Amino acid sequence: xxxxxxxxxxxxxxxxxxxxxxxxxxxxxxxxxxxxxxxxxxxxxxxxxxxxxxxxxxxxxxxxxxxxxxxxxxxxxxxxxxxxxxxxxxxxxxxxxxxxxxxxxxxxxxxxxxxxxxxxxxxxxxxxxxxxxxxxxxxxxxxxxxxxxxxxxxxxxxxxxxxxxxxxxxxxxxxxxxxxxxxxxxxxxxxxxxxxxxxxxx
Length: 202
Fold this sequence. Notes:
Layout: H1 5-36, E1 42-45, H2 50-57, E2 63-69, E3 72-79, H3 81-92, E4 107-110, H4 115-132, E5 150-153, E6 157-159, E7 164-173, E8 176-187, E9 190-201
Parallel strand pairs: 1-4, 1-5
Antiparallel strand pairs: 2-3, 5-7, 6-7, 7-8, 8-9
């Protein structure tokens, strides 16, 4: 089968757009992760934690979602029934499409059913080691930047010609954490936080 020059050009352009999109998404994830854990190995799950993930997916409904910028209400998003179904259908695939290993530099992928106890055990070992060291300044493990987080997140879902990103993100360490579904808007070559579908912290 012959491939015309026009078809080949289209395929190459599509591949470039896909690569750029993936690069932007990885950058988006790294910024979120390093905002919580500036240094050290990134421990992330192969798929989102099923229990909390399914709970958040249930909140995706058609309707108006207020947008926020700099702490104030901005342009809202009206999610259609078709878009809502699409988001739910795509996110259901997340639990069956694991992320690859070494997704980031200095990172380690762990099964979602094992990552939290693994990282908690690691943090307890770190805390024990710091306690045994002479520490006259009273600096704790958080101030030293030694604590590690468990990160569990979804693959990206794009809407409206990839101008909107719908994404689930969870971070957890030693009985403390947060998870949320959010909308992000593409602005100035970055994914800018916009609106919240649902979320919670503990």
